[in-house]
Known about the structure:
By secondary structure, chain A is of the alpha+beta class. Chain A is built from five helices and six strands; from the N terminus they run ααβααβββββα.
Amino acid sequence: xxxxxxxxxxxxxxxxxxxxxxxxxxxxxxxxxxxxxxxxxxxxxxxxxxxxxxxxxxxxxxxxxxxxxxxxxxxxxxxxxxxxxxxxxxxxxxxxxxxxxxxxxxxxxxxxxxxxxxxxxxxxxxxxxxxxxxxxxx
Amino acid sequence: xxxxxxxxxxxxxxxxxxxxxxxxxxxxxxxxxxxxxxxxxxxxxxxxxxxxxxxxxxxxxxxxxxxxxxxxxxxxxxxxxxxxxxxxxxxxxxxxxxxxxxxxxxxxxxxxxxxxxxxxxxxxxxxxxxxxxxxxxx
DNA sequence: ATCTTCCTGCAACCCGGTTGCAAATGCAGA
DNA sequence: TCTGCATTTGCAACCGGGTTGCAGGAAGAT
Lengths: 138, 138
């Protein structure tokens, strides 16, 4: 994602462009897997933890990223792929208990669940735990 | 759950019975919803946080409870209902963003997912977020 | 240039979870 | 019953992710 794509992304989501935000957005887009705050801290040495955190929070509020809680103890962030303001690109994630990485199973949509009367669903968090192909081969 | 049921439960799961463990097991069985460590701390004033924690860890290792990460920042515990040693009573949970309670949607089983070749699934965590009937009525 | 607002870094804090350690308890064998 | 060992427990301290208060700095408006 180059500078221009970034700005257009921000504009679509109503986020003002700043140098830090561009750096964070690029780091997110480069990641092949959902990343945690601490991973971003390591990757982006130029920005303070709190800055990254606030940027992520802002992105989250503007539906630019979505949040996955894989049960590893730290939350992970992933760029939304849907272009409209809503997270309709929810998919299942897989957390490997051996290498502790989280994978997007992008192909698999979250199954539709018919909830009991009265419940109103706004988002879903569906994480499978187990062993990834790479680790189970060993 | 009375004392005797407790002991039999422990025996089935290979857990030695101690006073503390009985107290924790009873607290879990009395809860209508999955409970967090801090909730148990409030409920069980006679046992130290670390004791409750260790008891829960032990229960988890012996498949006496299962763990739900509802994304609220603290993990919740729930007595397993299946009597064999394995967690085959997985079901969906609902986290209300207003009252911050977690509900078991016991009726709804976790849908079977066919994962890509190579992935080996050991457990699932499926949590819906939204507003519960009680809160949406207001 | 000045004012105001927003953005940022720093340091401190909060809280859930976890561990080391030593005292207490339980249990087996003499 | 006494002794020695293993397990359980409480206490205090720690850890790490997440979060916030504050003050300095940049950006935009008047």
